[in-house]
User: Fold Ras-related protein RABA5b from Forsythia ovata.
Amino acid sequence: MGEEEKGEEYLFKIVVIGDSAVGKSNLLSRFARDEFDHNSKATIGVEFQTQVVEIDGKEVKAQVWDTAGQERFRAVTSAYYRGAVGALVVYDISRRTTFENVKRWLDELNTHCDTTVATMLVGNKCDLENIREVNVEDGKSLAEEEGLFFIETSALDSTNVNTAFEIVIREIYNNISRKTL
Ligand code: GDP
Ligand code: MG
Assistant:
């Protein structure tokens, strides 16, 4: 890419939120480094990771933020949300309570960000089919109600992880393109 084209690069801040242990950090490490961590390190300390993707021949840097163990209700600071243009709201399909708490996380998101934030509802751990507590339909209909994208993922076996991020990134990109046209 020539010097004169550097100005065409994009940086999108994306936040990953949801209850503790739903798999947020593993979704992030799977997306950014294609790694899975079997020993959950609740406070890994890393604030964000950057992954470069290409859309329409343009370089897009996805700066994905991790709550890094501070996901107690209201403990996530406004600095975490500041400037976010995309969000993944994650629950664990094998733990019903994490799905019931999604509305709280959406409220939090709406308190700190405006409604144009491209948001994906993510039902993670879809590999745990035998102990599933949340039906696919429940996820789908909540997403429809709230006007969100929806996907089920497994950070463990890589199912749909890249797709989840890519849909959000594409939507942010489309939002920007619409604005600047
Ligand atoms: P966080 O607290 O939301 O960041 O969750 P972590 O990424 O630390 O994961 C919490 C626990 O769930 C860890 O023991 C992970 O190994 C496990 N885990 C994360 N994603 C998956 C998944 O897709 N499938 C399964 N079976 N376990 C997962
Ligand atoms: Mg974590």
Summary: The helical segments are 24-33, 78-81, 96-100, 102-112, 136-146, 161-180. The longest helix spans residues 161-180. The radius of gyration is 16 Å.
